[in-house]
């Protein structure tokens, strides 16, 4: 369980080699197998850039990225790395390739040259896991945002990756679509043991993670369990981020002189604490 | 308003014609076009049309669909008919004479034959698109062109481009609709004014559409790379086109019909 699956060490990267602006200025992080890690950060802090390093879409200018011990700079391992680390992007419309759901889910397997019988099995499994099996013959543009994003997830899961990176995968969805996608992701993490790295703007999503990383200006500045991170309300705010509503409420109440314990980050805990207090 | 546009003219169904192997269907359609020109006597044409009518019946495509597919080409049909009518000259006396216009019996014959042939041609190719979804058709084209791959013709790339284009047509139509509404909200007059004004008003619609299409292309390329896309080599398919016994039987029946129609031309050249 304690095996490290993703390692980034002192990553430096800039999009334009002539400009002095670095998107990543020595970012380091580690992800353990089976973990659910949320990465937070204000716009332009380099979190998407960091994510793209983990499956060799981008290569670092300095520093190393290891995926299950494979260096992403090693071109011979490129497809092994991409098979190990699947990536889901923000806009579901722009990552669906085929005109039929099941064919899109099969796309990665077709690329990998998986034999047809096995492909059929893996595609069906992936679609069932993402809860889109009943839409398998539909056209993707006729599905809702949440359904489309689950098609994209199924397309990646069909590769049987060890790790799934979600680059703001819920940002364009309505609340219901977001809940469906989060459910699917939690299911993949818990029952399949797939490591999940989720880049997000939603604090409620981050609060469900095992560990939270906060990035600012190309570096990882905070790290810890959601409780540890979100209890430091002031620091999180100074990084232009929100804290979950429950943590905010607890903070205000403490300021107003109501004695509440530390580390309250979700609504249930907050309600429980208030109940105890009022009893 | 743009949302009403349907892509291709696919008419889903589960008939023998629908299930027929798309590769064979494509080849037979091409043969049918050749046949229309080879068996050009009235009897041959009549038989060809009869064959097509039977196929439409088997495919359970309502006949009014033929009318719909013929409507856009009606001007062309009329144009060729009129040209044939006035410019084909015969040996005998003209049927009708007025100023420099002369109509000969041969002209009438050719005009009718030509229009019927063009209409049969359109109806025949429409049957292919009615009964085959665009994506299956793309697969068929890829399969049929595959031998050209040996000559370094980019068959897979071509098929990939076609299927991506098909995939993005609805997305881009929706986007055009949104952009048009956004520009209208800013006071753009898209539906009024002279033709030149309306064309000019489209520029602020097309430019954002192009930019967004390029962005989409960029993201799509990245998503494809993430899913290990590396070109056509070593690729397998989820759905492999396979000819069944039924396909071969259908093929044989069609070929016999075609042969019969062609033979009728040779046996009764005067009809």
What do these coordinates show?
The complex is a heterodimer of chains A (279) and B (271). Chain A is an alpha/beta fold and 279 residues long. Chain A has one domain: P-loop containing nucleotide triphosphate hydrolases (Rossmann fold, 3-Layer(aba) Sandwich), CATH 3.40.50.300. Helices cover 39% and strands 21% of the residues of chain A. In chain A, the strands form 2 sheets. In chain A, strands 6-7-8-3-9-10 form a 6-stranded mixed sheet, sandwiched between helices. Chain A is globular, with a radius of gyration of 20 Å. The mean pLDDT of chain A is 88. Chain B is mostly helical. In chain B, 68% of the residues lie in helices and 2% in strands. Chain B has a two-stranded antiparallel sheet. Chain B is flat. The termini of chain B are far apart. The model of chain B is unreliable at 1-7 (pLDDT under 50). Classes of the chains: A alpha/beta (279), B mainly alpha (271). Chains A and B meet through helix 2, helix 3, helix 4 and helix 5 of A and helix 8 and helix 9 of B.
Strand order of the largest sheet of chain A: 6-7-8-3-9-10
Looking at the structure, what is the overall shape of chain B? flat
Mean pLDDT of chain B: 84
Count every beta strand of chain A, where a strand is a DSSP E run of 2 or more residues. Answer: 10
Contiguous uncertain segments of 5+ residues of chain B: 1-7
CATH superfamily of chain A: P-loop containing nucleotide triphosphate hydrolases
Number of strands of chain B: 2
* Spatial strand order of the main sheet of chain B: 1-2
* Inertia-based shape of chain A: globular
**Pairing-aware structural class of the strands and helices of chain A?**
alpha/beta
Q: Number of DSSP helices of chain A?
A: 11
Query: How much is the radius of gyration of chain B in Å?
Result: 24 Å
The major beta sheet of chain B can be summarized as:
2 strands, antiparallel
Mean pLDDT of chain A: 88
The first-level CATH class of chain A is given as Alpha Beta
Membrane topology (chain A): Peripheral membrane protein
Protein name (chain A): Energy-coupling factor transporter ATP-binding protein EcfA1
GO molecular function (chain A): ATP binding; ATP hydrolysis activity; ATPase-coupled transmembrane transporter activity
Pfam family, one (chain A): ABC_tran
């Amino acid at each position: 369980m304690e095996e490290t699956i993703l390692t980034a060490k002192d990553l430096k990267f800039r999009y334009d080699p002539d400009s002095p602006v670095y998107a990543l200025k020595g970012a380091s992080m580690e992800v353990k197998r089976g973990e659910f890690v949320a990465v937070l950060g204000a716009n332009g802090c380099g979190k998407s850039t960091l994510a793209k390093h983990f499956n060799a879409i981008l290569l670092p200018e300095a520093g190393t990225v290891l995926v299950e011990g494979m260096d992403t700079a090693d071109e011979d391992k490129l497809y092994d790395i991409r098979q190990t680390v699947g990536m889901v992007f923000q806009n579901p419309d722009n990552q669906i390739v085929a005109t039929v759901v099941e064919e899109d889910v099969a796309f990665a397997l077709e690329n990998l040259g998986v034999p047809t019988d096995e492909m059929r099995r893996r595609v069906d499994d992936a679609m069932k896991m993402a809860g889109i099996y009943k839409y398998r013959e539909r056209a993707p543009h006729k599905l809702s945002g949440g359904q489309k994003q689950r098609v994209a997830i199924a397309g990646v899961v069909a590769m049987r990756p060890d790790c799934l990176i979600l680059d703001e995968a819920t940002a364009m969805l309505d609340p219901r679509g977001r809940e469906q996608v989060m459910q699917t992701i939690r299911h993949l993490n818990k029952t399949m043991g797939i490591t999940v790295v989720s880049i997000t703007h939603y604090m409620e999503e981050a609060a469900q993670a095992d560990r939270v990383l906060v990035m600012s200006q190309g570096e990882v500045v905070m790290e810890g369990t959601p409780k540890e991170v979100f209890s430091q309300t002031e620091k999180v705010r100074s990084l232009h981020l929100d804290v979950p509503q429950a943590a905010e409420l607890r903070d205000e109440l403490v300021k107003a002189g109501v004695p509440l314990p530390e580390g309250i980050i979700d609504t249930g805990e907050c309600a429980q604490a208030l109940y105890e207090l009022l009893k | 308003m743009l949302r009403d546009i349907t892509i291709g003219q696919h008419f889903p169904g589960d008939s023998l014609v629908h299930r027929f192997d798309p590769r064979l269907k494509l080849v037979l359609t091409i043969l049918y076009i050749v046949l229309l020109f080879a068996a050009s006597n009235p009897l041959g044409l009549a038989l060809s049309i009869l064959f097509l009518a039977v196929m439409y019946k088997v495919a359970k495509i309502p006949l009014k669909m033929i009318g719909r597919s013929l409507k856009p080409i009606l001007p062309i049909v009329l144009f060729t008919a009129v040209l044939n009518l006035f410019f084909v000259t015969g040996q005998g006396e003209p049927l009708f004479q007025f100023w420099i216009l002369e109509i000969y019996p041969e002209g009438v014959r050719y005009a009718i034959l030509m229009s019927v042939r063009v209409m049969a041609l359109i109806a025949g190719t429409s049957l292919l698109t009615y009964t085959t979804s665009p994506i299956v058709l793309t697969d068929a084209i890829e399969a049929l062109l595959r031998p050209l791959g040996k000559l370094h013709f980019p068959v897979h790339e071509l098929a990939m481009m076609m299927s991506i284009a098909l995939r993005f047509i609805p997305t881009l139509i929706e986007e055009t609709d949104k952009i048009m509404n956004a520009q209208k909200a800013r006071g753009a007059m898209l539906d009024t004014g002279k033709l030149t004004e309306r064309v000019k008003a489209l520029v602020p619609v097309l430019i954002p559409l192009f930019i967004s299409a390029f962005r989409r292309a960029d993201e799509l390329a990245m998503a494809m790379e993430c899913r290990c896309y590396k070109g056509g080599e070593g690729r397998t398919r989820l759905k492999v086109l396979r000819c069944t016994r039924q396909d071969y039987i259908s093929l044989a029946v069609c070929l016999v019909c075609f042969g019969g129609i062609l033979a009728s031309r040779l046996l009764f050249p005067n009809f």
